[in-house]
Amino acid sequence: MALYRSVVVGTDGSESSFRAVERAAEVSGAAGATLYIATAYQQGAAAGGAAADALKGEAFQITGSTPAYEILRAATDRAKKAGAQNIEQRAIEGKNPVDALIDLVIGVKADLLVVGNRGLSSITGRLLGSVPSDVARRADIDVLIVHTV
């Protein structure tokens, strides 16, 4: 029996997050597990405003559904090259990345959640929290935080 049967990885389209996708693909491919690649996005005007201004370069702001699907296509291509065999894509609208990943983990009964370490050592991450630290606290499964920056 494989250690991991389903692996979830989040991406925002950044090079850093694509490195986490590649590592998740290596792990899922070696285990024969299903890889779920997810990105969270906000539709239209809801994506802008004060949150986008406050985050500046600390997080990508994905607006509309087309950019999300382009990100998923690019991530899937990289995952295939890194060894993933069974890949499913999830574009999750209207949720912040942490909630989106945790809900997906629960929904697919994932065994492993993979995220990059971007934001862990930033001042914003220390004060407001970051995706890697927040999912590590909230997840009830193994979390692999990949050194991507």
UniProtKB/TrEMBL annotation:
Pfam families: Usp (PF00582). It comes from the Bacteria. SUPFAM superfamilies: Adenine nucleotide alpha hydrolases-like (SSF52402). Residues 4-147 form the UspA domain. Belongs to the universal stress protein A family. This is UspA domain protein. It comes from Segniliparus rotundus (strain ATCC BAA-972 / CDC 1076 / CIP 108378 / DSM 44985 / JCM 13578). The lineage of its organism: Bacteria, Bacillati, Actinomycetota, Actinomycetes, Mycobacteriales.
